[in-house]
Each structure stands twice: as C-alpha cells, then as structure tokens.
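Submission sheet (multi-component)
Chains listed below:
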Amino acid sequence: MKAIFGPPTRQVVELLTGLRDFSPAEIDLVTSAWRQASDVDRAAAWAQLQRATTEDERYSILAAASVARRTAMDLASELGRPDWAFWAAAWDAAAAIAAADRIGGAFDVLTAPLAAVMPSLAPGGDAERGLSRAIPVQRRSDVASDQGARP
Amino acid sequence: MISRFRQLFESSPDAMVIVDRTGKISAANARAESLFGYPRDQLRGKFAQTLFPGQSMGLETGGPQEPAQASRQHLVGSRSDRRQFPADVTLIPISTKQGTVTVISVADITEALRTQFVLELGFDVLESADRGRQALLGHVIRAQERERSRIAADIHDDTIQVLTAANLRLQQLRHRLRDPDQLRILDKLEQTLNLSLSRLRQLIFDLRPSNLERGSLAPTLRAYLEQLSSDTGIVYQFEDGCTGRASAASTRLIYRTAQEALANVRKHSRATTVRVQFLEVSDGCLARITDDGVGYDPSEVEDRPGHLGLTLMRERTQIAGGWCRIESTPAGGTTVEFWVPLARTPHQPEASRERVA
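Outcome: structure written.
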C-alpha cells in the first residue's frame, strides 16, 4: 500500500473505515466530548504537531485530516447530525494518527473525543501503539460474534 | 461436516490446495486447476513449493504435531506454462488425526495490483497538482501583500495629493466668490471632496495599517472592528490575551487573516454580534473569530469554486508554520480559529533542529 498519509497510512485508513460505522448516538457522544475539551489544550497540541513535523510530513498529515474531516462531514449530513464539532474531532484525530509517535501527549488530546467511541484511540490503545484496528465500541461485539460463528 | 468442508473447498473463488506434512499436495479444487494450469491429478503429489519456485512459503513440514498460526504473504505463483502471476497466499495449518495439514488459499492479485498502480499513479498526479496549487497560492499571498502596499503608496503619493491640491484651489476660489448660491455649491463640493479624502485614507489604512508596521496588532484590529460596527451595526467583543511580542510578519499575518474572516462576517454572515479572541498558546497566538450569523453548509460551499478567501486564510497560516480551522453549519454561525507562532523564524521541526545542534 502506498503511504499516502505517511508511515501510519494503515492506521489512518482504519480510522476512516471506523468513522463510516458511527451511529447518530456516537456522533453526539463525540460532538459533546469535543466541545467539553479545552480548546487551549487542543491549540497547544496542534502547535506541538506543527513543531514536531517537517513541512513534507505536515502535507501527509493534513491530507489525512482533510479526508477524515470530509468523511465525517458526509456521514454527519447523511445521519442528520450536522454539527461541525464532529468533523473537527475527526480532523484532529486523523492528524494525530498520521503524526504517529512524534507528538507525545498531544496525541491523547487530539484523539480524546473520538476515543469516546473508539477505545483503540484511548491512551495506550491499539491505534496509539500502531498495532491494530480502530473499531467502534459496538462493532467490537459484532466482530466477536462473527469470530464466534466461524467453524 | 466433512462434506460441508469439501463443498466449501470446491466452490471457493480462490485456488485452494491441501498440503500434507511432507509438503506435498493431497487435494486441490477446480480454481487451483485453472489458476496453475495443471489438471487435478497432476497437482496431487506435487510439492506445493514448486508452485512458488525460489520463495520461502514457511510451510511446516515434518515438524511438531501442534499446528502453527495462520499466515498470509504475497508471493509470485508459477503456472504450468511458466507464466508468473502475483499471488496473495494464505496458509492455514489444521490439526487432523493424521497430523498437521496445511490448507493453502491462493488469490491471483494481478488485477488488484493493476488497479492499485493506476490509483497510485492518479494520486501522484493529484499530489503534484496540489503541491503546484499550494506553491501558486503562496505566490498569490505574497503578490497580494506587495500589491496592497503598492496601491496604498500610489493612493497616498498620487490620488490624495491631487485631491488635496483640488481642495486648496477650492479654498482660493472661496475668496473670490460672493454669490451665496455659488458659495452653497462650493460648500457641497468641499464636503464631497473631504469625504473622498477620508474614504481614501480609510482605504490606505485597510491596505497598509500603519500601526501594524509598529507591531500594534490589538489597536489596529480594534480600529477595524469599530469601523465594521459603525458601517454594519454588528456588535463586537474583543478580548486581547496575546501579550507576547510578535514579529512584524506575524502581526501582519494575524491581522490579515482576522481581517479576511471579518470581511466574510460583514459580507455574508448577517450576524448581529462577532466575538474576537486572541490568546497566547505555546509561543504563538491563537485567534478565534465567532459570529452568530446564518452560517453555511461547508460541504456545499467548499465544493464550489470561487472561495479563494477561505483558502488563502488556511494557506497563509500554514505558510507561517501555523494552522487554521474554518467551521460552520447552516443557522449555526461561523467560527474561524487559527494559530500562528509569534516569532516568525524559518520553520524547522524540533527533531531536525536537534540534529543541527
């Protein structure tokens, strides 16, 4: 796979796939988490991201953020939840994932609202370690039952 | 169960073979026959390794009875006519009474790789075009600033001087006129001329605010907000929490971006209030401009050409090593938020600065 979004392209693609499965209630949860979070902390996290990355890296990071924003925006509109805090949260999280391990604590700040629905984004979660899939909470049970059904 | 497995095995869209502990094929499905070009009886007894010559498949042969984990790899398959093809190969070890056997599933990914190649080529073209667009926008921003300065200088050095001279001549004319009707006409003419001069001075201020050259961002923006409020009736709140000393370039950039956002408030928002906040965050200035206007649907507006203002705001901050977020929803007002470093130095990431040191 071409590293369209830099080395963590796979994680970004997984985030995009996970985003498409959000329910209206999950969008509300993310929206509310994003609005409750400190905008100063968020700005500081973005400042850290700017400082820790080169211009070329930022190109991939912003590409990831833009695609995630658009995906979230389309889904929100489809589900009748046109609150921009949701796609702002997707923008933040995708940028953090694309910046990978270079931004330290800023990762948790930027991914926290989406982590309310995607536990793999939470501190110490799979996405932070770059290992596994970002699957929404209720999807995990789907996956578990799928696996259970296999011969 | 066994008959169900056989049914699944036979009807699989992927080529499947079963390999015994010695690495020899003991069964193959119809798709394996067509993919590798061998009839089933020729595949049986063949070493699976010969289908992927010169490559390690990681087959467990003659090893322990406990099956290893399933694995997946990309290999090059070889057909009976020696033609090769890229293959997605999955090895699934299964424990049986006779020992461990391995089910090998093979998918020809020639088409998938071709599609991927075309997509990647398309992406490269898009990326190259986008980088070109960014470079062009950078030129537009710099040219815009130069042009603003040039127009402001031209207005100051030429148009305003001509109008001032015309005003002086009107004063001279006043001394010669006695007729009250003519004097009234002269009054009107003087008023119009003074109004023109005042508007041109405002235009110069908008194009090249003199306070900005001295690094006074807050007073300059307050003056702009006052003008906006007096022109439109929009009530403004301004909180300046950015006390750090910004470079002239940063000051200009913050002002220009805020000015662009406020120009949109004036032109499009139908807002009654606008709130401007500056906060010092991480050695930079976080600016937030929020209005309570009609907002817009970003998915609709961003797809339409002709919104250079929004694009330039983003590009301007990014060129300065900052970021910009412009968000809105219909009937939900608009928020423009951006952060730029206060001391504008050539941008270099921390990691590479450390390396240089």
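Remark: Confidence is low (pLDDT under 50) at residues 129-151 of chain A.
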